[in-house]
Every structure is written in C-alpha cells, then in structure tokens.
C-alpha cells in the first residue's frame, strides 16, 4: 500500500502573490509622501547612509551568529513568500488507514507501510512506536524531536528580529555621523539645511528596514514554524493512537480538534490498495471489541 502524504509533488512551489505584491507598498508610501511634500525622492537615496545601516547590521549579525546561520536566514527570507501545500487531510487519511490496520491486525503489519511514508516525522515516529510499547516514552521522544525542530525552524526569525534591533540603532549612529560632518562645515550656512536633511536619511533607513522589511519577514517565518509545529502535534496524536491500537474513530475524533476532517474517500482508497475493505461510512467499528460503547454492544447482540 502506498502511504505517501504528497506534501510536495513537484518542483514548483506556490507563492503568496497577495503578500508579495503588498510587501513593497510600505516603501512606496515613503517615496509618495516625499513627493507630495515637494521633496525630491532622490534625497532618500544616500549611499553613505545605506552603507552604515545595511553594512553595519550585517557586521553585527556576523559577530552575533555563525556565518552558516546567517546564510540560512538569507535563504529562508528569500523563500518567505512561498506557500507549502496544506496536507493535513492527506496526513489524517494516512494515519486513519494505518490505525485501521493496526487495530485489526497489530502494529507489526504496518511496518512496511510506515517505511514508505514521505513525511520524516511520521515515518520515524511510527517506526519507533512499533518497537516501543510505552506510550509515555513514545510521547517524550516525539516531544523532544518536535522541540528540536521548532528551534531550528524559528532560528531564521530570531536572527531577523535581532537585525531589526540593530538597524534603527545604526541609523541613529549614521545620523550622528552626518551631523558631525555638517558641524564641520558650518561656514557655509546656505547648505546647512540640506546637510541636516541628508544626515537623517540614515535614521529613515534604519527604522524603515526594521519595520517594513525585517520584522514582517520574521513574522511570516514564525507563522510558518507555528504551522509546522501544529502538523507535528497532529502527527504525535496519530502516532500515539496507532500505537495504542485504538479504533480509527477515536483517532478521527481527536483529529477534528485540530480542525481537520479526514477525507474518507482517500482513506478508503488507501485501504483498498492494501486489500483491506472498509466497513461502511466512517469506518464502522468491530463489534467484537470489548472497549466499545453501549450502542455498539447492542448492535452486536441484535
């Protein structure tokens, strides 16, 4: 039976076009505001200020974090607007199909199917569940694995937030340096006003890049990390339920608490591939299970 979750079926990854189109809006608003005030937009283009803010922020990051982590953050930021397909229903269908087989035939029967699963967390978790009889130990191992993954996934967001803290401070530093340059040339009072304007461009760069670029990117990466953590929590529930050999209906009810309604047609298709006929809508329970409710036992007696 093929238990592939089909999270990424191709090289093309969809992009959040709405967010991607809105992203430059903040910067555009700054230039439009300058234009409406009658100030040439080119006054915001100062290479010296850019060097102080952007170069200084990068230098501070390289001192604080390893180069590999900074490069990882740049790659993550470049892919911040990519949208991973929502495969929660496919995961749910896979876990319910495995729960059905585990409930009827035992954990050992799903070993071969578990090895074919694409999702590493689910595949490794099921492999450990087959060998480990203790649910408590299984939950501890899965929780430790999930925590380690969360820290790795949130690392780019933390680095971007650190950069958002450095940039405004370096912008103030650039403004101070600009003022020093202006003070040295007070003899020519005619250029004093323009000199002060140029000096404060570095502050605009620092505050602008922090609030219009770095913090929004960090927020998107944190949101993605939160979704991945939710996926792993859902898989943890499924793995532990399969290990306990509970009825698939129990697992389906638990999955609904995550807002996921398992695709019954997909579940039946995967059961059919394994040569396991379903027992009607919703995967009807086996009536010989002593743990069933009163209604099931009455149906058995009838």
Give a nutshell description of this structure.
With 302 residues, the protein is an all-alpha fold. The protein has 13 helices and no strands. It has one domain (47-275).
Overview of this protein structure:
It is built from 13 helices and no strands. The chain is mainly α. It has one domain. It is elongated and about 90 Å long. It starts with 16 loop residues before the first helix and ends with a helix. Mean pLDDT is 79; it is low at 8-12 and 277-302.
Structural class: mainly alpha
Mean pLDDT: 79
Give the C-alpha Rg. Answer: 28 Å
What is the share of helical residues?
A: 55-70%
Q: In total, how many domains does the architecture comprise? A: 1
General form: elongated
Q: What ranges have pLDDT less than 50 throughout 5 or more consecutive residues?
A: 8-12, 277-302
Helix count, DSSP H or I runs of 4 or more residues: 13
Characterize the main sheet: none
Distance between the termini: 35 Å
User: Count of DSSP E strands?
Assistant: 0
The fraction of residues assigned to DSSP E strands is under 5%
H/E series, N to C? HHHHHHHHHHHHH
Chart the SSEs and their pairings.
Blueprint: H1 17-22, H2 25-36, H3 47-64, H4 67-78, H5 88-105, H6 111-115, H7 120-131, H8 135-183, H9 192-199, H10 201-243, H11 248-256, H12 264-273, H13 294-301
Helix pairs in contact: 3-8, 3-10, 4-8, 5-10, 5-11, 5-12, 7-8, 7-10, 8-9, 8-10, 10-11
Keywords:
302 residues, 0% strand, elongated, disordered C terminus
């Amino acid at each position: 039976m093929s238990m592939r979750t089909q999270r990424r079926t191709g090289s093309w990854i969809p992009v959040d076009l709405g967010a991607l189109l809105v992203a430059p809006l903040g910067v555009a608003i700054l230039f439009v505001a300058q234009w409406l005030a009658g100030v040439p937009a080119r006054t915001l283009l100062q290479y010296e200020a850019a060097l102080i803010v952007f170069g200084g922020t990068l230098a501070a990051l390289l001192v604080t974090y390893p180069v590999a982590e900074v490069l990882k953050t740049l790659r993550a930021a470049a892919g911040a607007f990519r949208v991973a397909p929502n495969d929660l229903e496919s995961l749910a269908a896979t876990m319910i199909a495995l729960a059905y087989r585990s409930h009827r035939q035992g954990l050992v029967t799903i070993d071969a199917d578990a090895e074919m699963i694409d999702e590493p967390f689910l595949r490794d978790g099921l492999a450990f569940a087959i060998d480990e009889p203790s649910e408590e130990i299984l939950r501890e191992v899965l929780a430790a694995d999930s925590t380690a993954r969360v820290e790795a996934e949130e690392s780019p967001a933390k680095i971007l937030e650190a950069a958002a803290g450095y940039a405004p401070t370096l912008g103030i530093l650039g403004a101070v340096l600009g003022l020093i340059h202006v003070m040295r040339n007070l003899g020519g009072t005619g250029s004093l006003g323009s000199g002060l304007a140029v000096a404060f461009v570095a502050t605009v760069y620092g505050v602008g890049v922090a609030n219009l670029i770095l913090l929004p990117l960090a927020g998107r990466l944190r949101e993605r990390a939160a979704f991945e953590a939710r996926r792993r929590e859902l898989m943890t529930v499924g793995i532990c339920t399969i290990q306990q050999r509970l009825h698939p209906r129990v697992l389906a009810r638990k999955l609904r608490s995550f807002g996921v309604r398992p695709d019954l047609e997909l579940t039946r298709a995967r059961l059919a591939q394994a040569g396991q006929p379903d027992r009607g809508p919703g995967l009807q329970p086996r009536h010989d299970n002593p743990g069933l409710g009163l209604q099931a036992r009455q149906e058995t007696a009838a």
